[in-house]
Design a protein that fits this description.
Layout lengths: L8 H12 L12 E4 L2 E7 L14 E6 L2 E5 L5 H14 L7 E3 L11 H7 L3 E4 L12 H9 L3 E4 H4 L2 E5 L4 E5 L5
Parallel strand pairs: 4-5, 5-6, 6-7
Antiparallel strand pairs: 1-2, 2-3, 3-4, 8-9
């Protein structure tokens, strides 16, 4: 959790469940590293909190399991991606990932050419509803993925997308084949 959040019913239920179990939240800070099972994850963002764009307050996490890595970008947009690129470069933190959850539902404001080049994933996932009013995913973002050689799986076309790994190999299972 960061100090910036938007209260939703889901968030309120989470806080209520935590209070019932007498659990406390830990503030996510860039650079913090945690282990869970055989994996290690590092908080890469948000680097700084934005008053003007809550999307850039998304927690960005890189998870590494043996030789496979995943990058979860939340709704982070171009400015925060640039901040993360600088942060990782300055601190010598890897950004590369086998799999990336593309930022902000595949909008044109995320998944910049430079960010995708630094992450260099072979698999990308986009969460978006079919026929959503925002037009996600954006054709330009999809083109950047295609140019980078990223195989993209989308919840609007593929339904549930599940990525598996044994630490050496990654494979994807989808609810339905896309167009």
């Amino acid at each position: 959790m960061t100090q910036a959040f938007t209260s939703t019913q889901t968030f309120e239920r989470l806080i209520g469940a935590m209070e019932e179990k007498r659990l406390s939240a830990t503030e996510a800070k860039p650079g913090d590293e945690y282990s869970l099972g055989g994996g290690t994850f590092r908080i890469l963002g948000p680097i700084s909190l934005s008053d003007s764009n809550m999307n850039n307050n998304s927690i960005v996490i890189r998870l590494e399991y043996k030789g496979v890595s995943f990058l979860f970008t939340g709704d982070a947009e171009r400015q925060e991606e640039n901040n993360i690129l600088d942060f990782c470069s300055e601190n010598r933190f890897p950004l590369s990932a086998s799999v990336i959850k593309l930022g902000h539902h595949g909008s044109d404001t995320s998944s910049t050419k430079n960010f995708l080049a630094a992450a260099s994933p072979s698999i990308g996932m986009i969460t978006c509803g079919a026929g959503n009013v925002y037009g996600h995913p954006n054709a330009k973002a999809l083109e950047r993925c295609a140019d980078a050689g990223i195989a993209v799986y989308r919840s609007d076309l593929n339904g549930n997308v599940i990525v598996y790994s044994d630490g050496r190999t990654v494979w994807v299972d989808v609810e339905r084949e896309g167009e």
